[in-house]
C-alpha cells in the first residue's frame, strides 16, 4: 500500500509539471491534456491500479497509458450526474480478463463510479477502505477472484448499492446482520468460507435474489424469511448444514420462482403450503432428511418445471407427482418406485425420526 501511495504522489507531481509547462499555450492543446479534475483523478487512480496489477496475460490493459482514460479498455465514461457538461468515469468492467493484482486505495478517487465489475479474475487482498467515498456505486461484482479476509464491511456504507456479488472468493468469518438491512436487489455470498448462521433479521432484506450456498452456515431457517414475500424471487440455501424443519409459512413466498435447500440436514415433512407458491419453477429439496408424503398440490403447481426430492426419506407420492416429466424421486422410501433406499434403512429411520413431529408442527 505504501508503494501505491508513493506512486500516486509521483503521478500528481508529473501531471502538475506538465500542466504548468502548458500554461503558455493559449488553447492548451498538449499531448497530456485532461479535460477536467475528475478525469485527472481517474487517471491517477487507474495508473495506480495498473501498477498494482501483477499479471495481465491477455493484455487487457495494454492501452492503459496516457491521459485519455475514457478510451482505456473496460473503462466507461459518461456525463457526471451532478453536471451534464462534465465527463467522468462512470463504470469499470474487467470481467473475464484474467488479471492478477490488488485494489489500490487510489480507486477511492473514482467518486462518480456506478458500476465496478471484476468477475473472473485473480485479484487478491481486500476491498480498500477508500471505497467508502464511492457514494454512487450501484453494482459491485468482485466474484470469482481470490479476495480474502473477513466480510468486506466497507460495502455496508455504500448508500447507492443495489447489487452485491462477492461469491467464489475466500472470505471467512461471520456474515454481519447489517447486510440484511441494506436496500439491495441481489445478494450473492455463495462459495466462500463464511462460518455463521442465518440471522433473525434475514426477512428485512428487500432482495429479489439471495444466494448463500456452499458456506458453513449452521442453524435453522429463521421465521422472518416469510417477510420477504413482496420481493423474493430466487433463494438458494444449498450445502450449508441447515437443520430443523421447513416452516409452513414458507408458502407465503408466492412470488418465488426458485427454491433450493438441497444438501442440508432439514427434517420433518414437506409443507403443503408450498402448493400455494404458484410462481415456483424450480424446487430442490434433495439430500435432506425429509419424510412423509410428498404433497400432491406441490406437484400440481402450474409453473413447476423441475422438482428434485431425491435422497430423503419420503414414504409416498401421488400419481400426479409420478407423472411430472422433470423430477427425481430416487433414494427415498417410496414403495414401487425404482432406486429407493433399502427397507431396512427406511424402517430404521422411521423408528427414530430425525425430527419430532411435535417440533415441526409448531413451525
From TrEMBL:
Alphabetically ordered keywords of this record: Cell wall, Cell wall biogenesis/degradation, Glycoprotein, Hydroxylation, Leucine-rich repeat, Membrane, Repeat, Secreted, Signal
Signal peptide: 1-22
Primary location recorded for the protein, binned into one broad class: membrane
One GO CC term, this protein: membrane
Pfam families named in the record: LRR_1 (PF00560), LRRNT_2 (PF08263)
All copies of domain Leucine-rich repeat-containing N-terminal plant-type, residue ranges: 45-77
Cellular compartments annotated: Membrane; Secreted, Cell wall
GO biological processes: cell wall organization
Gene3D superfamilies: Ribonuclease Inhibitor
Keyword NAD belongs to the record: no
Superkingdom of the source species: Eukaryota
Full protein name: Cell wall hydroxyproline-rich glycoprotein
Organism: Manihot esculenta
Amino acid at each position: 500500500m505504501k508503494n501505491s501511495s508513493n506512486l500516486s504522489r509521483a503521478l500528481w507531481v508529473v501531471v502538475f509539471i506538465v500542466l504548468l509547462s502548458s500554461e503558455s499555450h493559449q488553447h492548451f492543446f498538449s499531448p497530456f491534456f485532461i479535460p477536467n479534475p475528475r478525469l485527472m483523478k481517474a487517471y491517477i487512480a487507474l495508473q495506480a491500479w495498473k501498477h498494482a496489477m501483477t499479471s495481465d496475460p491477455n493484455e487487457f490493459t495494454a492501452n492503459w497509458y496516457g491521459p485519455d482514460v475514457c478510451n482505456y479498455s473496460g473503462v466507461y465514461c459518461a456525463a457526471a450526474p451532478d453536471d451534464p457538461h462534465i465527463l467522468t468515469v462512470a463504470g469499470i468492467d474487467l470481467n473475464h480478463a484474467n488479471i492478477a493484482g490488488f485494489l489500490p486505495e487510489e480507486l477511492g478517487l473514482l467518486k462518480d463510479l456506478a458500476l465496478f465489475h471484476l468477475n473472473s479474475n485473480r485479484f487478491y487482498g481486500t476491498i480498500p477502505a477508500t471505497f467508502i467515498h464511492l457514494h454512487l456505486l450501484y453494482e459491485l461484482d468482485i466474484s470469482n477472484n481470490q479476495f480474502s479476509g473477513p466480510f468486506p464491511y466497507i460495502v455496508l456504507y455504500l448508500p447507492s448499492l443495489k447489487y452485491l456479488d462477492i461469491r467464489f472468493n475466500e472470505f471467512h468469518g461471520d456474515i454481519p446482520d447489517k447486510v440484511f438491512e441494506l436496500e439491495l436487489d441481489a445478494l450473492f455470498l455463495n462459495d466462500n468460507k463464511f462460518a455463521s448462521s442465518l440471522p433473525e433479521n434475514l426477512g428485512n432484506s428487500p432482495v429479489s435474489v439471495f444466494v448463500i450456498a456452499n458456506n458453513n452456515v449452521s442453524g435453522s431457517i429463521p421465521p422472518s424469511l416469510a417477510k420477504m414475500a413482496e420481493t423474493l424471487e430466487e433463494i438458494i440455501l444449498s450445502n450449508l448444514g441447515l437443520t430443523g424443519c421447513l416452516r409452513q409459512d414458507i408458502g407465503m413466498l408466492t412470488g418465488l420462482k426458485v427454491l433450493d435447500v438441497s444438501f442440508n440436514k432439514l427434517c420433518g415433512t414437506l409443507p403443503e403450503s408450498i402448493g400455494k407458491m404458484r410462481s415456483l419453477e424450480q424446487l430442490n429439496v434433495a439430500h435432506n432428511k425429509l419424510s412423509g408424503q410428498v404433497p400432491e398440490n406441490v406437484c400440481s403447481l402450474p409453473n413447476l418445471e423441475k422438482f428434485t426430492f431425491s435422497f430423503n426419506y419420503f414414504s409416498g407420492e401421488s400419481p400426479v407427482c409420478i407423472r411430472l416429466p422433470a423430477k427425481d424421486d430416487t433414494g427415498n422410501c417410496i414403495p414401487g418406485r425404482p432406486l429407493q433406499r433399502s427397507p431396512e434403512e427406511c424402517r430404521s429411520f422411521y423408528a427414530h425420526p430425525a425430527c419430532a413431529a411435535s417440533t415441526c408442527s409448531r413451525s
